[in-house]
Amino acid sequence: MKLSLVTPCYNEAPCIRPFWEAVRALHLPCELEFVFVDDGSKDETLIQCRTLAKEDPAVHYLSFSRNFGKEAALLAGLRNATGDVVATLDVDLQHPVTLLPEMLREITSGAYDCVAARRTNREGEPWLRSQCAKLFYRVLNGISEIEVRGGETDYRMMTRQVVEAVLSLQEVNRFTKGIYAWVGFRTKWLTFENVERFAGTTKWSFFGLVRYAFQGISAFSVAPLQLASVTGALSCAAALLYLAYVVVKTLIMGEEVSGYPTQVCLILFFGGFQLFAIGILGNYLAKTYLETKRRPPYLIKEKH
Ligand code: UDP
Ligand code: MG
User: Fold this and answer.
1) Looking at the CA of 88, which ligand is closest?
2) Beta-bridge partners for 7
3) How far, in Å, CA of 255 to CA of 246, rounded?
4) Ligand 1 pocket, mutate which of 5, 7, 9, 10 (most atoms under 8 A from CB)
């Protein structure tokens, strides 16, 4: 049996060798294949991969023509992995490789198709960031048919069948956590404590995460598109009631012109809301536009 380890790497030169050593030190009871995906790094990542590949025939690597993002790197890794069982994990050792033997046992026992790892804490992360993450998962689960757990990571091991299922989803805008939830299969959950990365810094900025959140929601839910219809219907109903009230009141008490502040508030509110709703529409339209172009999600410059 062969196990492929898919690791996206963006400016991770100091982590590559320690990662490889940590995995080798486990002496896993199967054939190994390393698939390092260099996501257009600007440092020595590719050189490190080349050196390792010369030392260890099990090391393979792909190098993108530029930075295409982690989701694209994971996709490329999964497409190129040849193992019967495939694991995806970060190269910065934040996904403890010590979980691999247990994951492998669960998969080979045949009881599960997929083993996923979840962080139990978010220590070392800014408070605002973890609160926003929690809110994001609550919203996503509430308005989509999929269920993504808080603390869920991209650390997974899966059978070839699950890999094929994940690859059968053709979308370019890939939100991998949602894709795993969507394809289903029997999934075993393991937990681990958050650890600091081995070297270097995180590639995520706060706004990068906000963009990621919108990407996740628009990939798996169309609920925001219905927001305008629901609010529109409600405000129409309110307007009709108010109209009846005004007519009756005028008939009984005579005409009276007032309510300037009310008008200003209503115009501003509905003007703002309409622009907001058009913005959401535009967001989905943009996604549709990008999907219909069918551009490749990444370009490979070098492959070994
Ligand atoms: N990564 C990538 N492309 C990117 C950003 C990140 O391949 O554009 C990789 C990165 O090298 C690492 C993994 O994705 O192996 C997770 O990134 P990072 O550690 O920065 O995220 P965090 O652990 O802070 O969530
Ligand atoms: Mg990390």
Assistant:
1) 1
2) 36
3) 10
4) 10
Q: Which residue(s) pair with 3 in the sheet? A: 32, 85
Dihedral, CA atoms, 1, 162, 184, 23, nearest 10 degrees? Answer: 60
Ligand 1 atom 16 nearest Cα? 90
Pocket test for ligand 1, best of 119, 203, 206 (most atoms within 8 A of CB): 203
Whether the model pTM is above 0.85 = no
Tokens found for residue 116: 């996923």
Would you place residue 196 in the very low, low, confident or very high pLDDT band (cuts 50, 70, 90)? Answer: confident
Q: What type of residue is 231?
A: T
Ligand 1 binding pocket includes 95 (Cβ within 6 Å): no
CB 10, CB 203: distance < 8 Å: yes
Strands (E), 79-236: 85-88, 114-119, 152-159, 187-192
Task: Enter the tokens of residue 23.
Answer: 């995995």
pLDDT, tens only, 125-181: 778 888 888 888 888 888 888 888 877 888 999 999 999 999 999 888 888 888 999
Residue 70 alpha carbon to ligand 2 centre in Å: 11
CA angle 4, 28, 22 (to 5 degrees): 80
CB crowding 171-191: b at 16 or more within 10 Å, else e: ebebbbbbbbbbbeeebbeee
Query: How far is residue 281's CA from residue 12's CA, in Å, rounded to a whole number?
Result: 38
**Nearest-atom index, ligand 1, CA of 204:** 20
- DSSP class per residue in 154-193: EEEEEEHHHHHHHHT---SS--HHHHHHHH---EEEEEE-
